[in-house]
User: What shape does this take?
Amino acid sequence: MFPLLPPTSPAKKWLGFVTAIWVQAVSGNNYTFSNYSLALKTLMALTQLQLNNLSVAKDIGKAFGLLSGMASDHLSTSTILMIGSVEGLIGYGVQWLVVSERINPLPYWQMCIFLCMGGNSTTWMNTAVLVTCIRNFTKNRGPVSGICKGYVGLSTAIFTDLCTSLFSSSPSKFLLMLAIVPAIVCVAACIFLQETPPASSPSEEKQEAEVFIIFNILAIVVAVYLLAFDITGPHGHVLSLAFAVGLILLLAMPLGVPLYTFLCTSRTYSFDIEHKALEDPLVVQKALLEKSKESAGVKVADFEGFKQRPSIGEDHNIVQMIQTFDFWILFVSFLCGTGTAMCVMNNMAQMGLALGYSSVSIFISLLSIWGFFGRIISGLISEYYIGTHAMPRPYWNAVAEILMSLGYLAMALAMPGSLYIGSIFVGMGYGFLLTITVPVASELFGLKHYGLLYNILILNLPLGSFLFSGLLAGYLYDAEATKTSEGGSTCVGSHCYRLVHLIMALASVLGLALNVLLAIRTKKVYTEIYESKNPKKIIMGFSASAKY
Assistant: This one.
């Protein structure tokens, strides 16, 4: 029924968004390395440095996300999704063959290639979803980013808990899920996820915002459901199976939104053209610009001839973007946060073992679930404060860095329960960063080349993984560890990662300072966004001034 709807149908637009949510819910496989890293370490007799470099190879796959960014300007959404699903099927499929011992362990360099392919597969999925959704809902970028990135955050917990409930946390079954499930979901998304015209009036924008509240509520229900499963301890076979069925039903519940929209398509809306033009934020913003230039006695055309490069807030090409100081502030601050968080995610199995935990599934789930809460909260709250106080969005990235630095300090103390606290704080801070940076990039540098811009920023994930996980954590851990008879290394005690956590806390403080600087420098951009979101206030202000 839905596929027969025209592309501009609201029901099909929302159905596309639902499939985008599903893609995001299965595309967080890059954060699941700790679930099977010990199996790889044992089978291949690796040192911690060698294992960390395998995780770096996985993250380097994101560096090749530049290809998906460039492709997003030339290929359809469905094509990009299919490329990602096939690549993931091969990359994780080969890892499954190795871990399940259906084939002998491959040479180290070959394993690096297949982990890289698995890591790169998600860049195609994320690019297809984020570029399409941001363009479809340009007036609600914060909530869109929060919901999409929120489900990415839940992805790790979804895979981990499903594997725990159905397959008793088997690493080989886990990898099989990572190979097959995303491919199936991407096929469904290929049919429905397409670019559609964004909201063209304040009333449509308001309707979209109301619908996003429903999506946020449904996402929170899923997160609470996963959290309840994690904190209630071991479960029997029947209860675990019931949990899996319930989770699948909860993930299907967003389908109610397009179904309701389809049933209500008989409703018609009429708009007065002059009134619509008056209320359209873009029209108001353009009118204000024209008025300000006319008041200075200069025509707009006079400026166009002298304009050499776009201002912050306008569309930039990649060369223009990297020539701005603001881009490098955003890039380095993002590196300080995401790089340190990737180190925790890639090394959680060894961090838990060092502190005496035989299983780290609970910590991986905590990182994922609280990362989700960080994504949802930051998307909503940043959008609210822009619309009410013109508060620059980078301030919320500064909040994220504070949370993460506190998390690293808690882990460095290695007191009872500190790993739980650290996982919650780091997960939430990482969720803030991933969600806030997506709309910030589009607001500062435009949507014209957004696919490539997004993937340039995502270069921070492999770069940060290499610096903080491959080099910092790998070398410092092996310096504290003892050699095993099989040729690997192991370390037990709070000293194993203490210096690593302290250095990462300092990196987060640097990220905090950079984000505050970026917020101050971009205050004007967010003032203009505030004015575009509140055209009536601006018009009333002009009317009042006209009386005098």
